[in-house]
Amino acid sequence: MNVQLTKTFNTQALIGLLLIAPAGFFISLALSKYLIGIDYFFDLFDSFIASPGHPERFQIFNTISPIVFLGGSFLALILNIVAVTGLKFKKENSNLVTTLMIKGNFWNLAIVLVSFLVLTILVGYIIGENWQCWVGLKAKC
At a CB cut-off of 8 Å and minimum separation 6, what does 7 contact? Predict the structure, then answer.
């Protein structure tokens, strides 16, 4: 099996990087606070979003963040999967044979991996935070 990775940075990889950047930034802030114990950066971000003088910021963030984080990560995943995959159809002995091709562009594959990881973290967080409400264990959600 001959595997060759090209390392040219292309438009799909750049767009994917820009789409997963907000979610990656937020996850980095949360991990630095809750996993490493460095509160400063998350608290600075939190004080900006949940400022008592601007309560509308928190509401806007809670409305827009799922769309930006989940939607951007999903779009980055789809865009870069399309960039590295292809289908080839051919007829062989009266049978239709389909071949899935994966082109080895390093940056597109890296964006696919990172966006899948970001989506997994976000969906895991959503399930972890809300499962008690979904099964009826929590009365006030």
Answer: 105, 106, 107
